[in-house]
Write a structure and sequence with these properties.
single chain; about 90 residues; Arc Repressor Mutant, subunit A; three-stranded antiparallel sheet; two-stranded antiparallel ribbon; 5 strands; globular
Length: about 90
């Protein structure tokens, strides 16, 4: 899977936001935590859920179950705003 090129990270009022480049899609955005920013940076290249989980496990002191929840929740948010492509279920 990979993040679409239609989205960029902007700083808005001191907060990092993933937003559509398309002005007609003004409502398509999500706030990014440090974890979300890390995952989005990984999604700039083709990657897998397992690779994203590995990134979380390497960066944070969490177990696999927690990493899976973090990754799956983030992917679901990206899917809702159409910011991810080529996701294999």
């Amino acid at each position: 899977m990979k993040g679409t090129e239609d989205f960029i990270v902007k700083e808005v009022d001191g907060e990092r936001v993933l937003t559509s480049k398309n002005e007609d899609s003004a409502g398509e955005k999500i706030s990014l935590t440090a974890t979300g920013l890390l995952l989005w940076s990984e999604l700039e290249q083709e990657t897998t859920r397992e690779q994203l989980m590995g990134t979380i496990l390497a960066e944070y002191d969490v177990n696999e179950e927690t990493a899976a929840v973090v990754v799956d929740t983030f992917i679901e948010k990206l899917e809702k705003i159409h910011a991810i492509k080529n996701r294999s279920k």
